[in-house]
Design a protein that fits this description.
- There is one protein chain.
- 35% of the residues lie in helices and 19% in strands.
- It is α/β, with parallel strands linked by helices.
- The protein has a domain of 190 residues: Rossmann fold (3-Layer(aba) Sandwich).
- The strands form 4 sheets. A 7-stranded parallel β-sheet has the order 3-2-1-4-5-7-11, with helices on both faces. The protein has a two-stranded parallel sheet with strand order 6-13.
- β1, α1 and β2 form a beta-alpha-beta unit.
- α1 crosses α6 and α2 crosses α3.
- The protein is globular, with a radius of gyration of 19 Å.
- The relative contact order is 0.14.
Length: 279
């Protein structure tokens, strides 16, 4: 029997999950703010303010619901508009959060049970949204994600576009995840739900961002951009936030409980795969 996955916010990760589930005869429905064609899902409109009755009914009835719409100061938009339908759910619900909720750990390791200490408004909003979804009668599964990359949005693409910089901040180390590895973890969770569980989904190799850019340049046969100190980079506030939190994110729980292993355990494997796929 065909099952239905509803993706509230059909972006890169939702599309990757849709591609992964397609061979299993899932019906994939995704929302965007405006009408659009998508190869991986039937798109319906949800503007974050009002929802059609048919969408509200689908939220309550879908076999699985994945939420990835960015929250605002009051929390998750889907929860605000369709909270009653979400409360009626008994099936799998997943919420995509961020490892930014942990804040700055000075390069140390962080685990799911560590306290949240966000250092800027965007991850603080995610903490609020997490609490909303964990408060459901059938609590959601929370997936805390680091920097996400994949085809069309990687250091390779930034170098090709002439947009890459090698900003260096002493001691900064970050975790990251390929979108296909995130999709694999989500699919495993759908198959073996554990309502209310929180998972970090990231690769095995935290690394300074300048190393990623340098390796991407090597793959492309390009000269790497010169290094520039963070203090001299004159970054806009939104970009500077990327360099504020240094931490290594543990993925041990996802491995132990879901049987998940990243296909791309480090950025080198992930970037090579993206380059090879492009040909």
């Amino acid at each position: 029997m065909a099952r239905t996955l509803l993706c509230l916010g059909h972006g890169h990760v939702a599309s990757a999950l849709a591609r992964r589930l397609a061979p299993e005869a899932w019906t994939i429905i995704g929302t965007r703010r405006t009408a659009a064609q998508d190869a991986t899902a039937r798109i319906v409109v949800f503007d974050g303010e009002t929802a059609a009755t048919s969408l509200i009914d689908l939220v309550a009835a879908a076999d699985a619901v994945l939420v990835s719409i960015p929250p605002d100061e009051e929390g998750d938009l889907s929860f605000r508009v369709m909270g009653d339908a979400l409360r009626r759910r008994t099936g799998w619900t997943g919420y995509l959060s961020t490892t930014g909720v942990y804040g700055d750990r000075g390069g140390g390791w962080v685990f799911e049970d560590d306290p949240c200490a966000p250092t800027s408004p965007p991850p603080a909003r995610r903490v609020l949204a997490e609490r909303q979804y964990l408060s459901l009668p059938t609590p959601a599964h929370i997936f805390r994600l680091p920097g996400i990359y994949g085809p069309g949005r990687s250091a390779l693409d930034r170098l090709r576009a002439g947009e890459a910089r090698r900003v260096v901040k002493a001691g900064l180390v970050l975790s990251r995840a390929h979108e296909d590895d995130i999709a694999a973890a989500l699919a495993l969770s759908i198959a073996q739900p554990h309502a209310g569980r929180i998972y970090n989904v990231c690769d095995d190799e935290p690394a300074p961002p300048q190393e990623v850019t340098a390796y991407a340049a090597l793959l492309l046969g390009m000269a790497a951009p010169r290094e520039i100190a963070f203090e001299d980079a004159n970054l806009p506030q939104a970009s500077a936030r990327f360099y504020m939190d240094s931490k290594r994110v543990s993925n041990a729980r996802a491995k132990a409980e879901l049987g998940w292993r990243p296909m791309y355990p480090g950025f080198r494997e992930g970037l090579r795969a993206i380059l090879d796929a492009r040909g």
